[in-house]
Amino acid sequence: MLETLIWETAKIWAVLIPLFLAVAYFTYAERRVIGHMQSRRGPNRVGPRGLLQPIADALKLLFKEITIPTYANRTLFLIAPALAIMPALAAWAVIPFGEGMAVADINAGLLYILAMTSLGVYGLIIAGWASNSKYALLGTLRASAQVVSYEIAMGFALVGVLMAAGTMNMGGIVEAQAGPFWNWFWLPLLPLFLVYWISGVAETNRAPFDVAEGESEIVAGFHVEYSGMAFAVFFLAEYANMLLISFLGATLFLGGWYSPFEGLPVLGPMFDWVPGTVWLFLKAGFFAFCYLWFRASFPRYRYDQVMRLGWKVLIPVTVVWLVVLTALVYGGVGPWF
Amino acid sequence: MEQLLFYIFAGILLFAATMVISVRNPVHAALFLVLAFFNAAIIWVLAGAEFLGIALVVVYVGAVMVLFLFVLMMLDINTAPLREGFARYLPVGLLVALLMAVQLGAVILSERAELIGGTIPEPAADVNNIQAIGGVLYTVYVYPFEIAAVILLLAIVAAISLTLRRRGGTHQQDVAKQLSARPEERVRMVKGMSGSSEARRENQ
User: Fold this and answer.
1) For an interface test with A, which of B70, B126, B131, B133 has the most A Cβ atoms less than 10 Å from its Cβ?
2) Could you tell me the residue ranges of all domains in chain B?
């Protein structure tokens, strides 16, 4: 009893501590990568090559005062950051980092992910409402409408994965993609893969869909009144969510821990020595890099166009492809089904 | 252990449900309702119905209550007028409450449900929740399932057609028109004055 409790807690920390580190260095990577894309250097003063910058930032935020607006709803104002980060961390429980390497290997893994990502919006809603500020409320309205809309498209895309894999267990979904890279689900589910990725960027409120923040129009959106550690927690939640979407993309569409040359005659054994976790991290790293790439490349969407893209383009595409996919699965097409 | 957890979560559930109807601020009430849903989901998961529990979170917490809060936030809520008609609505309210209590009692006390003194059947070890529900839903209960789907579709169509009422004189952006715009239609090049800025300064 006690032993399992300690063991499970240890497993949770084994995921959370690297996650916090990854989030810290993801912010560093973002500033460096975007800096180089814009012919700047980015942060390079704190520590060798600026590597201690995220630590310095975290310490700075830790020592800053948390101001609470006079007319804010105190309790909800302080609960909101916790509500934002809780689902962002809880969702990591079912991600398989290798064969059988998940904190909780549950049957309804995919559904659990869907539930947890849909909870994240409460943090935004409550933060904006409790701040009792016009800009915060506007940001909240934008954020919640956007997240709710894109959740539908994303849910449909995940239904496609579920149909293709025939299981909701995350490990099972990866195992259904066993084989070289053309066996992975990105190929038979190509439209759903694109829809998943676009709505994943929109779900995390990132550029080019970062209208919730919209610093040129509504200052910083829902977290405009937050400072110090309370703000840092929102920041942490946003980056943890980005990494989560990246790892999910790698798990559901790019074959998780499988090598791209799995089972090929010469190339397969050549890469046998690389552990599966490394492949997963490389694939997820590609998605994470795309997040930064998008932010440096695309101008922000106009809000009505964000909604139009979600409802009138992505959702119809997913519905049509689900019908096509049904035919593919029923006919047992290709190496996939 | 499981029993202890059950009582903890059931206690929170009852507390949250009571707060839903007793707090003054509607936003707080909605948030307590979220807490209540959450604890109900946890109790279902504890009982071994993991699919139903997570589905409850996805549907009610993740979608329905978000829309609820979305609407509530935009209202300027003044609680005083809300409490005005309390005495007037009391008889009707009591009647509804009584009816619901009778119905609930009928369900709980009925012999068929075996809710009192009955035991929860052990879930089969080799079949998981989702497969079991899917197996029944698409075979035995396929007609109710399809009918429910059609009713939901009808609700979607009805809601959309209600909002399609066009009012004259509003400004709307037609994205297709915007995308098909060409520079030649919008911008007319006029011959500028020679030496541009210098010439303009002289003109002023």
Assistant:
1) B70
2) 1-85, 89-122, 125-163
Nearest neighbour of B128 by CB, restricted to A107, A122, A129:
A107
> Mapping DSSP to helix (H, G, I), strand (E, B) and coil, where does residue B118 land?
coil
Residues of B within an 8 Å Cβ radius of A: 1, 27-28, 31, 34, 50-51, 54-55, 57-58, 61-63, 66-67, 69-70, 73-74, 128-130, 173, 175
Q: Which amino acid is at A65?
A: E
The predicted-structure confidence for B99-127, as pLDDT tens digits, reads as follows: 999 998 888 887 776 666 666 666 666 66
Summarised one tens digit per residue, pLDDT across range A193-212 is: 999 999 999 888 887 888 77
Asked whether the beta carbons of A66 and A228 are under 8 A apart, the reply is yes
- pLDDT bucket at B147, cuts 50 / 70 / 90: very high
The HSE-up count of residue A167 (CA atoms within 13 Å, CB side) is 15
Query: CA B31, CA B66: separation in Å to the nearest integer?
Result: 10
List the one residue out of A212, A271, A281, A200 whose CA is nearest residue A241. Answer: A200
Query: Phi and psi for B77 in degrees, rounded to 5?
Result: -90, 120
Distance from first CA to last CA of chain A, Å, rounded? 42
B39, B13 contact by CB (below 8 A): yes
Cβ atoms of residues A199 and A153 within 8 Å: yes
Using only the alpha carbons of chain B, give its radius of gyration. Answer: 29
Q: How far is B115 from chain A (nearest CA, A)?
A: 27
Tokens of B133: 């529900």
CA distances from A143 to A36, A122, A137, B43, B48 (A): 30, 10, 10, 31, 35
Q: What whole-number distance in Å separates Cα of residue B159 and Cα of residue A24?
A: 45
Are A119 and B62 an interchain contact pair (Cβ–Cβ within 8 Å)? yes
Do B54 and A111 lie within an 8 Å CB cutoff?
yes
ipTM of the complex: 0.82
Nearest of A120, A90, A105, A112 to residue A15 by alpha carbon:
A90
Backbone angles phi, psi at A23, to 5 degrees: -65, -45
Give dist(CA A10, CA A290) in Å, integer. 32
Tens digit of pLDDT for each residue in B87-100?
788 889 899 999 99
Q: Given this model, what pLDDT does residue B98 score? A: 94
Indicate the helix (H) or strand (E) that contains B16.
helix B2-22
Considering the domain B1-85, what is its CATH architecture?
Up-down Bundle (1.20)
Q: At what angle do helices A190-203 and A276-297 cross, to 10 degrees?
A: 70
- pTM of structure: 0.85
Structure tokens at A326: 């049904």
Q: Give contacts of A 90-129 with B, CB under 8 A.
A: 106-108, 111-112, 114-115, 118-119, 121-122, 125-126, 128-129
